[in-house]
Amino acid sequence: MFEKFLNILKNTGELLSRPLFGSFFVYLTLIWLLNIADILQTLMLKRGGHLKREANIFINYFLVEDEVLFIVAKCAALLLITCMLLRGYYDKKGTTVGGVYYSPGDMRKAITFLLGAGVTYYLVIVLMPFIVLIIGHLLRGNQA
């Protein structure tokens, strides 16, 4: 069953790594941009009094303590994740999971799939509310 799931990830990763849909670096860039939008959105909601707490309890600690620490913590986590993704993407040995060997090409496909899934998540969770916040901010600014 686990092997079937990994094969589904591999096949979907192949689909997502085609030029029609994007590439690893396009997804990585989008993840960075969407995380920056997430930081701005969180700070806007906090300053407006509409955010009781951040969903991530570790990041919430930094948000409560200081906004600069919050930004540094978010960027440090994103940088660490980026380093791990780059390491896996450029791996030359492959890996064995559950007794099944996956080539470096298979790993690149799986990593691309996961990045594509992350972009999709952030588009729904971050970008749409962020656009609403920005439009609302612009409308209130024009009324003043």
State the end-to-end distance: 60 Å
Biggest β-sheet description: 2 strands, antiparallel
Uncertain stretches of 5 or more adjacent residues: none
Oligomer: single chain
Question: In which order are the strands of the major sheet placed?
Answer: 1-2
Radius of gyration: 19 Å
Counting DSSP E segments of at least 2 residues, the number of strands comes to 2
Percent of residues in helices: over 70%
Total of DSSP H or I helical runs spanning 4+ residues? 5
Q: What portion of the residues fall into strands of 2 or more residues?
A: under 5%
- The residue-averaged pLDDT reads 85
Q: What is the overall shape?
A: elongated
Instruction: List SSEs in N-to-C order.
Output: HHHHEEH
- Total domain units: 1
Report the structural category.
mainly alpha
Q: What does the secondary structure layout of this molecule look like, with pairings?
A:
Layout: H1 2-16, H2 24-47, H3 57-65, H4 67-89, E1 95-97, E2 100-102, H5 104-143
Structure overview:
The mean pLDDT is 85. 77% of the residues lie in helices and 4% in strands. The chain starts with a helix and ends with a helix. It is elongated, with a radius of gyration of 19 Å. It has a two-stranded antiparallel ribbon with strand order 1-2. The chain contains five helices and two strands; from the N terminus they run ααααββα. The protein is mainly α and 144 residues long. The chain has one domain (2-143).
Which features does this protein show?
144 residues, mainly alpha, two-stranded antiparallel sheet, 5 helices, 2 strands
